[in-house]
């Protein structure tokens, strides 16, 4: 009987994975190139890695990437129709004749070729993976704009993996009686984060850290960690770091949890436990150390961030000036929370020089996330149906999410943002929620657990119904917000 229920659940999760992939495919096809999320810079790095070249400096865009960016870039992200003749966007350059487009291409290329790729020092994993995927597309005959969309459609595979990974995490923790085994994958499948619709190294973070989180749970659960667990944990930590430096706060929490468990087990089985930890350190440390050395040699520091920060005109503030930041007021704290959570849920792409957002949806995301996060914390402390391991797992998820938020708050108060448009001196809040995408599985776990805890006396179906309602609202609002994108002449539907 239990096996039959489990098989039905797994079939449902497979279906959710397919639906999530189709949803990402539709939205990724609807957005033109190149989006306001530095998509041109990410594509430039993909072309370099696909050719086997690792960037060694912050240089201008390559000629190969410009040959795609210039003809296929849409002006609709950062410009408005009234900036063009007859208050209409011009037809795509790739739909015009060579004679018609020649002058515009020349002017456009002159502007693009001066842009510095300040993403060049970013870790290599996503760009190497996407570059390999791009070469596969070219091998099967995809060229020009079709090959660009082929790279975006890689995100369909990643979201499918993420949904399944969320299910495996919940099954590992064992909170099916609160509806989490369906609720968490459901939230992950329909979370309207628009970074999934463009080229960005952020899209790989939730999968990589999801594996790290799962490995950390296995460490917490076991009394005898295997050699395989040590190897997988180290490789997952390395993959997460080599995907995005903003994942470091998440990794710090996971590493602390694993180390604490190792110290606890050390008294009983020091040999096997220590071997597993040594393998974790080696499998994580060698690739991470190698990349740090590369960054130090070519970009000036182990993180490769000093020059990038200088290009952005950011400068560190004296410690005494930190406390003057508005984040230390109730209004400032709410501004920080509401903006970072809204962008964590729905992203931060722009259309016609306005962020794609809806105040009603943003308010719902901020308020519901705060209430359910607090409910989850209360449940971790007071829910007497939880085992010790389940409390530890939920607490680890909470610490992970808090660490990501704390890192953003630290960046907000640490830097004077100079001439930067975002964040700025006038609005000094670092709230790019997409950079927290690595925490999607821990957040989904807490969000759905908060619902389950509040409805624990009603039954396991009630939390799922609530999550369905939340995701229905999120999907409808996403369609409403992005409706103008679908009619763009520059997108995949108008090839």
Characteristic terms for this protein:
495 residues; mainly alpha; two-stranded antiparallel ribbon; two-stranded antiparallel sheet; 19 helices; 4 strands
Descriptive notes:
The chain has 495 residues and is mostly helical. The chain contains 19 helices and four strands. Helix 3 crosses helix 4 (98-112). It starts with a helix and ends in a 14-residue tail after the last helix. The model has no long low-confidence stretch (mean pLDDT 92).
How are the SSEs placed, and which strands pair?
Layout: H1 2-30, H2 39-50, H3 63-72, H4 98-112, H5 125-139, H6 144-152, H7 154-173, H8 180-190, H9 205-221, H10 227-241, H11 248-265, H12 270-299, H13 306-311, E1 315-316, H14 319-322, H15 330-346, E2 350-351, E3 354-355, H16 359-382, H17 388-414, E4 415-416, H18 440-454, H19 461-481
Antiparallel strand pairs: 1-4, 2-3
Q: SSE order in H/E notation?
A: HHHHHHHHHHHHHEHHEEHHEHH
User: Count the strands?
Assistant: 4
Largest sheet: 2 strands, antiparallel
The residue ranges in which pLDDT falls below 50 over 5 or more consecutive positions are none
What amount of the residues lies in strands? Answer: under 5%
Helix-and-strand structural type: mainly alpha
Our Rg estimate from Cα atoms comes to: 23 Å
Q: How much is the average pLDDT?
A: 92
Question: Helicity level, as a percent range?
Answer: 55-70%
Provide a count of the helices.
Answer: 19
Q: Tell me the span between the first and last alpha carbons.
A: 51 Å
Say what oligomer this is: single chain
Spatial shape? globular
- The largest beta-sheet arranges its strands as 1-4
């Amino acid at each position: 009987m239990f096996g039959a229920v489990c098989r039905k659940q797994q079939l449902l999760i497979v279906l959710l994975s397919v639906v999530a992939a189709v949803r990402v495919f539709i939205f990724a096809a609807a957005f033109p190139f190149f989006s306001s999320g530095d998509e041109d810079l990410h594509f430039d790095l993909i072309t370099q890695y696909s050719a086997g070249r690792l960037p060694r400096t912050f240089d201008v865009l390559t000629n190969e990437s410009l040959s795609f960016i210039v003809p296929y870039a849409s002006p609709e992200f950062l410009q408005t129709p009234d900036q063009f003749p007859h208050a209409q966007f011009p037809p795509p350059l790739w739909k015009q004749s060579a004679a018609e487009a020649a002058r515009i291409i020349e002017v456009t290329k002159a502007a693009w070729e001066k842009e510095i790729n300040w993403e060049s020092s970013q870790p290599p994993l996503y760009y190497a993976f996407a570059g390999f995927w791009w070469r596969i597309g070219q091998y099967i005959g995809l060229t020009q704009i079709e090959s660009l969309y082929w790279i975006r459609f890689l995100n369909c595979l990643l979201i499918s993996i993420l949904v399944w990974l969320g299910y495996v995490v919940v099954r590992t923790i064992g909170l099916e009686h609160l509806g989490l085994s369906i609720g968490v994958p459901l939230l992950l499948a329909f979370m309207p984060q628009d970074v999934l619709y463009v080229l960005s190294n952020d899209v790989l973070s939730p999968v990589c850290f999801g594996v790290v989180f799962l490995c950390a749970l296995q460490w917490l659960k076991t009394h005898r960690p295997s050699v395989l667990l040590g190897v997988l944990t180290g490789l997952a930590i390395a993959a997460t770091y080599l995907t995005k430096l903003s994942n470091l706060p998440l990794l710090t929490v996971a590493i602390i949890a694993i180390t604490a468990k190792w110290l606890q087990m050390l008294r009983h089985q020091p040999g096997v436990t220590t071997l597993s930890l040594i393998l974790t350190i080696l499998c994580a440390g060698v690739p991470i150390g190698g990349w740090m050395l590369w960054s130090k040699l070519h970009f000036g520091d182990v993180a490769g961030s000093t020059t990038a920060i200088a290009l952005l005109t950011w400068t560190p503030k004296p410690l005494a000036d930190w406390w003057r930041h508005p984040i230390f007021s109730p209004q400032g704290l709410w501004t920080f929370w509401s903006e970072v959570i809204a962008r964590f849920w729905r992203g931060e792409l722009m259309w016609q020089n306005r962020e794609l957002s809806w105040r009603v949806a943003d308010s719902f995301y901020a308020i519901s996330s705060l209430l359910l996060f607090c409910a989850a914390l209360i449940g971790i402390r007071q829910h007497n149906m939880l085992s010790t391991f389940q409390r530890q797992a939920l607490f680890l998820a909470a610490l992970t999410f808090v660490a990501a938020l704390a890192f953003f708050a630290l960046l907000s108060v640490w830097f004077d943002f100079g001439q930067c448009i975002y964040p700025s001196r006038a609005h000094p809040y670092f709230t790019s929620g997409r950079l927290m995408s690595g925490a999607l599985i821990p957040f989904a776990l807490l969000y759905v657990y908060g619902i389950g805890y509040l409805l624990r006396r009603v039954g396991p179906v009630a939390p799922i119904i609530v999550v369905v309602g939340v995701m229905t609202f999120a999907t409808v609002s996403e369609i409403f917000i992005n409706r103008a994108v679908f009619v763009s002449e520059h997108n995949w539907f108008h090839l």
